[in-house]
Amino acid sequence: HVTARSFDQRDLHLFQSLAIQTSSTLENGHVEQSIARLTQLQDQLSHQAFHDSLTDLANRSLFSDRIDHALLRRSRTGKPVAVLFIDLDDFKAVNDTLGHSAGDQLLIGVAERLRSSLRRPDTAARLGGDEFAVLIEDIDNPIEAEAVAERIFAALVEPFAIAGQSVTVHASIGVAVSDDATDSASRLMRHADVAMYAAKGAGKHRHVLFISGMEAEIPGSHD
Asked: pTM of the prediction?
């Protein structure tokens, strides 16, 4: 089951709208119109619970749930599932030099390019900060997942126009591919995270494919 995130200010506004709409329903008897509006508000709340408020990509909860479902399908198709962890290199420098608003605009721009790099069935997520993730289903071998990482690098080549400045972004990407029926969402995400830190340690602006034993080489990580 998916565990939703905590509610924020946007959710509070929707709850207030929900209360006002419900009150209006009772006072005016416009039942059909009000039910339609309440359904719309419910859909908005559901969407906001599982999507990142800045980029509208899937959040960590929804992403983990999508991996679980993909692994269940894998048991029928036999085709591996891949997870990519993407961390922007030196993102803090953008916030420090141009401000947090500019940093947010950059994250939105990265999210848009990330979407453009994927097939329709794939899932892109923002896990928090400057860390993104991608779920790729029905691949035949790890090379396909690594090819997606290269497409993401290519999508980030063109500089972003942020706060009147031309900002170039690089990323480090960790790639993990399911290898047996015992894989879980948490295990795949952990392996992709370990591989991403390995990419950082190898000099950034590259991708690394997780291999067994790699977790022992990354300080503070374990399988």
From this structure: 0.79
